[in-house]
User: Which sequence fits this backbone?
């Protein structure tokens, strides 16, 4: 499940995971928030905090890929915060190929990740 996180500016999609992420999370949380941001901003900042036990369903992975490609140039910066090794590995493969700035942080760097995203 994904839930929006408070305390970020209006150009930022900020989410935290809890357990299994599904296609429904994209349809109900991510996609509406990104569309809302793009109504008033050219680019979206993204802050994702993946907690222990996070898993992605096949539907979530497919939706992420399709939505991500459709909006490939709509992202400004992406900060991923997690201690999950599989997320660090996956990000290491895909993020260098992306046309936006992206960094992966460990949980103890949560505030550093937020500062980096906000350009502080």
Assistant:
């Amino acid at each position: 499940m994904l839930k929006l996180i408070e305390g970020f500016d209006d150009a930022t999609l900020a989410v935290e995971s809890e357990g299994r992420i599904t296609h429904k999370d994209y349809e109900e949380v991510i996609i509406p928030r990104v569309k809302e941001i793009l109504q008033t901003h050219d680019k979206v900042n993204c802050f994702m905090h993946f907690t222990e036990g996070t898993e992605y369903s096949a539907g979530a992975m497919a939706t992420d890929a399709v939505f991500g490609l459709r909006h490939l140039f709509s992202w400004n910066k992406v900060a991923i915060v997690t201690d999950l090794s599989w997320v660090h590995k996956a990000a290491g493969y895909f993020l260098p190929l992306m046309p936006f700035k992206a960094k992966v942080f460990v949980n103890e760097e949560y505030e550093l990740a937020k500062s980096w995203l906000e350009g502080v």
Notes: The chain has one domain: 2-118.
